[in-house]
Amino acid sequence: MTAELVQLSMFDLETLEGTVRTGLKSFIEVGDALTKIREGNGFKLRGFDSFDNYVEKTFGFSVRHGQRLIAAAETARHIERLTGETPANESVTREINRVAFSPAAVQEVQTELKKTGSSIGTAGAKAVAKVVTSVLNKESPLPPSLSPGPAKPSDSKPATTKPTAQFIPEQPMPEVITMPGSEFCPSCGLIPDAYTRQGHTWRCGECGGKVILSVSSEALNG
User: Which domain holds residue 45?
Assistant: First the structure.
């Protein structure tokens, strides 16, 4: 059951706006404040008819950046529930976001980082990006039909016939899964209408970025 949204008062709005402007303790508080303003229709108290216009006029940054902050806060809390640690900053969160919907992948990232003496809570964005990319590559191998086979011994005899063109199997048409309106993309932080599958790889319908989904298309569309 969805919790009933509470209309903000002007005092609540001013407090949340202060959090966004100063950042206070962390990017998580900024993302949480923006979420509460959006869901509580706080922007209407300033005379705006949309959250997008409100963000641009009030805080001076783009709606896309605001969406990233909201997504980063959601991802950071999700990662904390899975690992007990919060990503150090927004840049780290953006990298770990690429595997956020696969608990197994998140745990693998944490395990690999700990081998280097760091963790999701202490590592920098560059180190996390390297490990996440490695995990993604392992999760999305080439299809068997396209994987290179064992090397064949060379034939010392000259070829007497013209070699035939290699047959490459036709790839399956992309499968599309429609996402609930609250699910954001782990790659770009936006909320796509759908994810598509190309071969063994899932991609965001908004940015085309490669992602890992830990649930089936039947579950998402059911």
Answer: 1-61
